[in-house]
Design a protein that fits this description.
Helix content is 38%, strand content 24%. The protein has 4 helices and 5 strands; from the N terminus they run H-H-E-E-H-E-H-E-E. Strand 1 and strand 2 form a beta hairpin. The chain starts with a helix and ends in a 7-residue tail after the last strand.
């Protein structure tokens, strides 16, 4: 058990930080760039922005996914995450955020601050190579 603990700690220490939206978009594009329905999830990070876990938490229809901050924050708390990066796909290929995307991001940022799991960014992934960082757009 002790050996497994040490190996797990060493593995996290070697991971590069996901500190820039372009790096996060590159990571996400490999799995989520081509989807026929909306998918939302989160990358849970430690205090140095190293990836702890990648979770796809919601699947929606062609144009909508019903999401609540509670499930995202619960997962972050269980993982001991210091922050999270939200992501969701736009099957249309256009990564422009909707008014609902912006409202949910603000709500998620407030809820995360309340429980100590800071929202670092929210990326909208469109077609291959197309994405939008809501932090860069000043969404909250």
């Amino acid at each position: 058990v002790e050996l497994a603990r040490r190996l797990a700690r060493a593995e996290v220490a070697e991971r590069p930080p996901l500190a820039h939206p372009a790096a996060v978009a590159g990571y996400l594009s490999l799995r989520y760039a081509v989807r026929d329905q909306e998918v939302m999830g989160a990358l849970f990070l430690d205090s140095r922005h190293r990836l702890l876990a990648d979770r796809e938490l919601f699947r929606g229809t062609l144009s909508r996914a019903a999401v609540e901050p509670r499930a995202l924050l619960r997962e972050g708390l269980l993982l001991g995450a210091g922050g999270l990066i939200l992501f969701h796909t736009h099957p249309s290929g256009d990564p422009s955020p909707s008014a609902e995307d912006l409202a949910f991001t603000r709500r998620m940022a407030e809820a995360g601050e309340a429980v100590g799991v800071r929202l670092i960014d929210h990326l909208v992934v469109g077609s291959v190579g197309r994405w939008t960082s809501l932090r860069e757009r000043g969404a909250w």
